[in-house]
Amino acid sequence: MSAGAEPFHIIDTRATSRPDGKALDALQGFAYGAGVSIIMEDTTEEGSGPFLHQHPYSETFVIHTGKVLFTVDGTQLVGEGGLIIIVPELTPHKFEVIGPERFRSTHVHANERFITDWLEGPQA
Fold first, then answer.
1. Confidence of residue 1 (pLDDT cuts 50, 70, 90)
2. pTM flag (> 0.85)
3. Residue 70 in contact with residue 93, Cβ under 8 Å?
């Protein structure tokens, strides 16, 4: 650490943008010495969500508002604001926004980098 450097990081996602100009919505922890990576989801688009996939680490979904239909290892469940859903490592999962209210969530990947094995969709 250089002289005068803070021993922590503050990332203002309201003022930070991606190269395509959209608001910052994902952060890989390795760039900050963190052992986790996060995705910040904020949408009103019904039906949106990722294709079926899995990770070699657990993923924790903190749902702030809205509703989604999760499929976790073949079991379907509705996730809604106020719930936390933890998907174990190597467990196939996906979700689909079912609205009509805004869906906001934070997805915590228990790894410093995103590693995704796509099981459906164009990247499978």
1. very low
2. yes
3. yes
